[in-house]
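Q: Got a minute? One more chain.
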Amino acid sequence: GCGARKTMSYSHLDDEERLGERASLTSSDLGSSANDSEYGFSEPEGERFCANLCPGTRAGRLVLAGGLFLIISLAVVLLIVGVMLAKDNERLDESNSSGSGSLHPGDPAAQWAAAITADALLAHLNSLLTIAMSNGGNRACGQPGYAASVEYVRQQLKENNYDPVIQNFTLDVWDAGSTPPRFNQTRPTALHFDLDSDFAIMTYSGPSAPTGNCGPVFRATGAGCTASNFVGMNAGDVAFVSRSPPSLPAAQRCSFEDKVNLAVAQGATGVVIYNDGEDGHTGLMAGTLGSPQHIPVFFVPYELGIELAGQGTDAEVCLYSDSKTDTQTTWNVCADTLTGDAAADLPRVVVGSHLDSVPAGPGINDNGSGSSNTLEMAIQLKKTGLYKDLVNQVRFCFWGAEELGLKGSRAYVSNLVDNDPEELKKIACNLNFDMEGSPNFMRQIMQGSLSPDDVRKGSSYIEKMFSDYCTEQSEPFVYKEFSGRSDYQSFVDAGIPAGGLESGAEEVKTVEERDMFGGIAHASADTCYHQSCDTVKNIDMDGLLSMAHGAATVTMRMALDKDLMSNLYDTPPSRKRTVQKRDQW
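A: Always. Here it is, folded:
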């Protein structure tokens, strides 16, 4: 590929330098000189040397003829090498000026993909890690690390001849408070639980009374998604509620916020959500409640949750938190391939990745990997010049506050729903890239064929675009359900088809998936998911590069598709739906 061609040309240049040195030395050695001592001979030795080899002797004439032949031969060799180098450098110049176009003539999708390199992706990842480590160890929305991430993306886009737009939106920014949360059992025996190993406070958890919110334990039945699951609960109880297990049909699952709202309606003084115990859903995690709450809400691992909840009202627990929520302005960043009249009537492919991390860590896989992919796609589309040939517009977006409940993408779509429905109609689809380099890597394609009815045709088409690409490349893949846990959901809720790639979060890799992708069976795709260890060391670079190439290829094919809207929709979209609220399960 491109790397091999560059290596070859560097080798030619080295050969040329070495040939030049040898030619210079040979010319000097064969030339005559008035002072034979230049060659290190004493005078008698010089006389004997001249007697045998000087031009006046037969031997000398033979040596001279041989020398001339050697000089001519070397000159011919140098001429041939020079011509070859000139042609090779010309090809390199063309490649450098237009990405890898000369390697893939007539195939813009392959040209764009080949221009995206592991080194470029790694450079973005390292920059985002440096930003996080310089700003409290995270890039969470509302924190300095997120503001610095926005500026990094904005500058990168500007340096590559984009005109990035910063979209402001208001956000309830949550802070865990100055005093660490506490979680204790007071009866039947006194127990103290450790923050970040036994329990975690959930984003948007409310504050407690100064001495904590204490109450008897009540265990909700089922997944805690209906009022009937809380029958028998008394005001002042602390509700223990299971996370919705993945095996439960989607219609029977609900968000963390839904569970808390149902408990609050029955008078809960606190809520403890425990993991559901299925594969990949046993340990501790940091989740979000979607919007500010007025009581403390903690998360515990499955075994601890079952143990505590099983005691019933004979047990009492206390939750302490001094968390607070403030309203702040934060940002999305978007940039278009074409603007003004040139893009006035073009369908738009919105390519998006969330830029924020959770407060617990730097978020390099989640989602520095997707952000780096989207950013390098944008950069190389300009550098290769391929943007000039697009039939449809491509808009690259970097969403804020995904980790707080898809807030940035919801603000983007809601603004169009409320204020610019004609612009909303131009959006053909959304391609979402979230967690692209998980260390226990799996290539997951969003399963559009199981998406909601009104977007199923378009989402199925996008699914097939990705599966066709993977089949062409002989790359194995599995399907990923539309769970509503990433920014594509904001578009789906507005009737816009969506799709994309993921490489796995907390779900456990099966033996079959191990055989497909390598790695470790019975282990999570990303053991550092939402943790401080989510650094550059947590990235599978080979996996990330393959995902970036797939993302670029499918995006280009859609950007060149003159029949894109008819391939995605049976009838032109009306887009009169309101954006639904759906937060992390």
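A: Confidence is low (pLDDT under 50) at residues 1-64, 83-103, 576-585.
Q: Perfect, thanks.
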